[in-house]
Amino acid sequence: MSALKQEDYMGTVFLADDATVVVPYPGLMGGRCARPESATPIRDPRKRAMDIVISATMLFLAMPVMLAIAVLVRRDGGAALFGHDRIGENGRVFRCLKFRSMAVNADELLKTLLANDESARAEWNETQKLRRDPRITRLGRFLRATSLDELPQLLNILRGDMSLVGPRPIVRAEIERYGDNIAYYYATRPGLTGLWQVSGRSNTSYARRVALDSTYVRQWTFRKDVLILLKTIPAVLRHDGAH
């Protein structure tokens, strides 16, 4: 993992007038993460109960919208749902579901772009995302901007693969970028939303994302989960960092 800069940890994330998550967090030394001795797993039964109740309710209410999206995506060619291997709690691999927002030949398009465009390659290496991603379909851009592409992850939550709130799900290749802080990622289920998503999302550096994910686990409380959920609503409506 590349060296983490001091500015990646500085500042305070305001969840509400009376609740904050502070970055940097205990354990930072000289702008770099101290090796975590342990990362206490999040085992509060209220978290899982909230996951089940809210995701089941949302899935029921969103079903007509999801069916309509599935039809539209199918008309664009290819499967409606896209499943991708992600790393979950304790390093377990699961299939993370989304509505397909990319062209059927997305992998080939990305490989060609990164081989021929130096700036795109640098952006991808820094954030694992592209602001002008040629793989994304016209419908896919709308789905991503509104986060509707992630509605199928409600099924992942019900199955216990994910939580409503947690670190952003990562792929195996990203484990190295977390360095020693991967222990914090493994301590809980990845989330549909999280501290990173309400703190600028794709507008932040990958190093800051690691810091936010680690901070979320270290400073976790059930109340902060509720506040992050509430902060997610305006963040989605404003399309904060959605691309």
From TrEMBL:
Please give the superkingdom of this protein's source. Bacteria
Family membership, please give it. Answer: Belongs to the bacterial sugar transferase family.
Is Transmembrane helix included in the keywords of this UniProt record?
yes
Tell me what this protein is called: Exopolysaccharide biosynthesis protein
Q: Which residues form a coiled coil?
A: none
Q: Where in the cell is it found?
A: Cell membrane
Would the keyword Repressor turn up in this protein's UniProt record? no
Transmembrane domains' residue ranges: 52-73
Protein source organism: Gluconacetobacter sacchari
Kindly state which keywords UniProt assigns to this record, in alphabetical order. Cell membrane, Exopolysaccharide synthesis, Membrane, Transferase, Transmembrane, Transmembrane helix
Where this protein primarily resides, as one coarse class? membrane
Q: Which residue intervals define the domain Bacterial sugar transferase in the entry? A: 47-237
- What terms describe the molecular function in GO for this protein? phosphotransferase activity, for other substituted phosphate groups
Q: Name one GO cellular component term.
A: plasma membrane
Q: A single GO BP annotation from the record?
A: polysaccharide biosynthetic process
Q: Name one Pfam family in it.
A: Bac_transf
